[in-house]
């Protein structure tokens, strides 16, 4: 229901639709008068975030996300009651306040919220641009002597698509997985510690595809699984330890520590991206291909749907899940 339908007074153009439940509000006579301090320009660093429905700006003295301030025109009226029904009596964010300039100018940088505990979760990457990627907040540090990486992808165009990229302070490509789909080339590329191995395959599909890659530092053995079927084993970086302290992103290659490149950017959709700090069994890998969510083990390093991540640029939450 539109507010003004039942409450005509709410049909103005300078109002905020806050439903105050007056019957549930109890006056506490012991509360002191609200005393706003530090209500001028604040200095220092502010942390801005997006919780899905509002921009949040936190400071040592202020947390702007939970304070709704309505001003009245004190130059013209003696009280809030006198000003409340006047066209120029109240101001609710529809005025120029230079103290908020930095806050407002940075809202674009938190265009998307931090997400976690979502299912089904599908990310859509429509464009190749440097702003379009997802930053993953891992469940525990990338201190790995073995791993399994699984994902479901639906590619929209040919070329090389970077699915995951982990860059540490010492190596641009500490761990990276890319998928190449072209007329004559179909392969999965794996970088570990700045060394590369390619794994060709012959699968042709325009549907969702499940990829799993396992690696063990002990032997350096690398196995590629596609839709539950294993290919020829390769070897890469035996005795290597994947170092912690870097950043893990989806959809882009990291050109140096904290750098983002649109070269080989992912274009399409991805879901069920999981990372474990051990090699899954054959049965567990083949379970990744199924739609039985209750029987499928999820990653303990990156756990799809529960690990939090932040989306930037043109990344979209999509509703086309692979099992729907």
UniProtKB/TrEMBL annotation:
<dbReference type="Pfam" id="PF00354">
    <property type="entry name" value="Pentaxin"/>
</dbReference>
<dbReference type="Pfam" id="PF00194">
    <property type="entry name" value="Carb_anhydrase"/>
</dbReference>
<dbReference type="InterPro" id="IPR001759">
    <property type="entry name" value="PTX_dom"/>
</dbReference>
<keyword id="KW-0479">Metal-binding</keyword>
<dbReference type="InterPro" id="IPR036398">
    <property type="entry name" value="CA_dom_sf"/>
</dbReference>
<feature type="domain" description="Alpha-carbonic anhydrase">
    <location>
        <begin position="1"/>
        <end position="324"/>
    </location>
</feature>
<dbReference type="InterPro" id="IPR051005">
    <property type="entry name" value="Pentraxin_domain"/>
</dbReference>
<feature type="domain" description="Pentraxin (PTX)">
    <location>
        <begin position="119"/>
        <end position="323"/>
    </location>
</feature>
<keyword id="KW-0106">Calcium</keyword>
<protein>
    <recommendedName>
        <fullName>Pentaxin</fullName>
    </recommendedName>
</protein>
<dbReference type="InterPro" id="IPR013320">
    <property type="entry name" value="ConA-like_dom_sf"/>
</dbReference>
<dbReference type="InterPro" id="IPR001148">
    <property type="entry name" value="CA_dom"/>
</dbReference>
